[in-house]
Amino acid sequence: MDTTNEIKGDYAPLRDPEHPQLGRFDKPLPCFGCGIGWFSFLLGFVCPLTWYYATILYFGNYYHKDPRERAGLAASAIAALICTITVVITIAVIFL
């Protein structure tokens, strides 16, 4: 077994001459492997401000760095929208 090319704690990049993009996303996602978007979505139920942070990342096209982040960031953006609508309706009912 050749261990000279192994990097401890990281995945080794795959090289395929026919598909040069194949090894681009071999690294695990940040935030315990689920990505910033899904981590923000789950954490948003405790602290909704993380949904707004992920929304800023989504509209800032952060997912172009890693397309695997797109679904989680979009889910957080939708959760932020629902949260905002709920807060606006609640404030309107209380004060009107």
Automatic annotation (TrEMBL):
The chain crosses the membrane at residues 36-59, 71-95. Keywords: Membrane, Transmembrane, Transmembrane helix. It comes from the Eukaryota. This is 60S ribosomal protein L18a-like protein. It comes from Pisum sativum.
